[in-house]
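dude i think i finally got it to work??
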Amino acid sequence: MTIRKVKTLNKAKTTLEGAGVRLKRAFGTINPDLDPFLLLDDFSSDNPNDYSSGFPFHPHRGFETITYVLQGKVEHKDNLGNGGVIGPGDVQWMTAGSGIIHQEMPKPFAGDPRLAGFQLWMNLPASHKMMKPRYREITQERIPEVTINKGIKVKIISGEVNGIKGPVQDIISQPEYLDITMNPHHKFEYFIKEEHNAFAYVITGEAYFDDEYNQLIGEKNLVVYQTGDEVVIKTKDQPVRFLLVSGRPLNEPVAWRGSIVMNSEEELQTAFREVQKGTFIKHTIEKN
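look at this
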């Protein structure tokens, strides 16, 4: 086993998106160490003014968005009449493929003004850029939770832990998406395929994120790992909750502007021309 070391550490930065949503961006640039992942936004806030303007209708093509809500809810609809709501603990795994025009509107839930959650963008390979779009809505009841050593809880959105598989098994980039909570003075060891890229994002608390245990890393920090086949996370005096995400890199050229991700500038220009002409939507959208 080769234990992965922390390669880079970045603090999430405040940014404005959509119609003025204030959020924390953990990353949002082309980075070979994060391929196939493009962006991770933390949209947590207890102030509705930060998120109520939402994300009005906008186009997507060429990638997937994974929206994971911890508190509050997100209502979505598209220009073909599809819609739905995801609430606390739910996930929407949306594959834009050849194109979708939709909106996402964050809202409070049950009178609680606090909103918390994440949106992760995962690139599609050239062979799947123009696939048929689809929604996969996963309620919290469908997301299994595994307890390890009585002090570690792992929610499995995608991937497999101790023989338990998450509800999304995506064969394209073989992603693993785990939500992990650890009590103080615990150690978590987890195998990740050596050829995959991996990162962790600290939601709350703090922990050591490699086997040298020389730096406690706190909330709103992104840990990008070096290569290896195992991660080791250890808590000290505080609990920690974090996302652990990994996937097989595509190693393809990326042309990215706004919410369209293709492989060339020519493909980008084609997509934006189609948006203007009203010919952007190529397929109906699957929902399951």
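The chain has a mean pLDDT of 95.
im so relieved honestly
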